[in-house]
Amino acid sequence: MSLDGAVDRREDTSAGNGLAAPILAPAPVLAPAPLSALRAPVPLSALRAPYGDRRLRLNPNKVHKPDTYEDVQSEFDPSIYSSLERHLPPSMLEAPRDAKLEFMREILARYLPEGDRARPLHKELYNMHPLSFFVPSFIGAIRENTEEGFRKIISEPSPGVYSFSMLQPSFCELLLSEVQNFEKWVAAAKFKTMRPNTMNKYGAVLDDFGFEAMLNKLMEEFICPMSRVFFSEVGGSTLDSHHGFVVEYGKDKDVKLDFHVDDSEVTLNVCLGKQFSGGELFFRGVRCDQHVNSETQPEEILEYSHVPGQAILHRGRHRHGARPTTSGYRINLLLWCRSSVFREMKKYQQDFSSWCGECQREKRIRQRQSLDATKSAFLRTTGSMS
Ligand SMILES: [Fe+2]
Ligand SMILES: [Zn+2]
Asked: Domains in the chain, please, with CATH?
């Protein structure tokens, strides 16, 4: 598994909120929520295993020696973690203690009695209902499922950034009130929840509030058809896990988001509302790990203003950030879609010229140089012959 994004690199975000100028400051990888003391690289599978894999094994591994969890503050007896550890999927057994603990906590949370969970306000949001979630044009394009059909509803303001109308205003409203509802419950129950990711402090991981199955459907049935067409070279046709969350911007919330890349192959970013000004997204070209801090070319610069209900779809490796939200509140729904096959394959590759802007540039330079060399060799031979 690829290691990028497994480490909290918040310290790297120094500047990098570059305007039209080339961005030379480091672009950190925006990773999933903090696994408290997690510093060492961890297989991404350990952070968020594919949907179907996030469960315990029926039979304990009897030879495995579990860690001790006596110091863990929890509503359960800490010894339960040592017993549960023997039931972890084999790939998790050697993961750092914090990663194992987070994984087991997530599973245990599902066993909490109903009364200890946030009570859903709008139950209809937790299952996929395309007709009440999406605008007709989006549903039509997904049904048609052709590049031509998608092109009819999208605009591509800069190569690799696709924008289209997606969510019904009524769905945005319900989801906003649902988020508010479980935030109230979290505050009242004095529960500690995960931050949406390493850079955003305000918002919530929707997967932790019962939205995991619905968001998985959203990825498989509505995002995959598009990413298969537009992002196949970064795993767009093999997306198999997701991280779904909302982020909140405004006074007393996050104001802006520094320049970064996402820990995703494909990112869906939809504005839910409410009233706000500012908060534009800025994009600065797609880069592989090796070139993540290389200069921006003028043609890679894009500024995008959010409109509620409107989605943006881009590669996770498309460098971007968010300008300050100057008034009001802005809440966006994010779905980071991942492909474990792509991450595995990436380890064996050096040249990413099918999608990295800088790899492409280097390739063009190499081709020009070899063409020039051939030309001058040819001129030398013909010159010596005349
Ligand atoms: Fe991002
Ligand atoms: Zn590259």
From this structure: 10-355 (2.60.120.620)
